[in-house]
């Protein structure tokens, strides 16, 4: 996934000028890359919605609802302090370690479809991670308050930093802002193993517990793989955003 960025740099995004290196082309390149990733993200999200809708119509043998699948997976993993609850919305499913709840959306909680079972098992995968002290999940939880503050303040810090840079050539505040944006990128990167591992745990349990087999298991894998790709696109977008601001600040030196 990093190859396109390397290719862009090799294609001449670092241009030599008499005063030194110009980063204006690199800044524009990163801006275009962010837009491209945004388009890819839209396509991936649309595909996820399509796959979920398709497999929401496919029932699997056993007739378990999403809530029952979640409760069964929790019991099989000897987790008895997590409650399965219902929340409104579509694909708003999540595990909340603070309230120790698996929160399943309207389209999952009472549905007996392949898609509902896959999502429910995935969220239980997070509960299993929490019970076992899975390191990336622990780190992500620790980063949440830091990222919430940094993401809300970063843009304003960079804008103020650029104003100061224009008059004083002092870059410190700009780099503090970039550091704040970088925290979101770190969070996105840490999220990747958390989500992929939860899906792997879900698929393994669905198979070993014989909750799903054959075609239905393959369909569940497909649904979860498209969900995981949304997090991959988010991570790439966060990295591109950091690079954009880095080149923007460096370009002010010209």
From TrEMBL:
Keywords: Membrane, Transmembrane, Transmembrane helix
Transmembrane parts of this sequence: 21-44, 146-165, 172-192, 231-250
Database matches in Pfam families: Zn_peptidase_2
Name this protein carries in UniProt: Zinc metallopeptidase
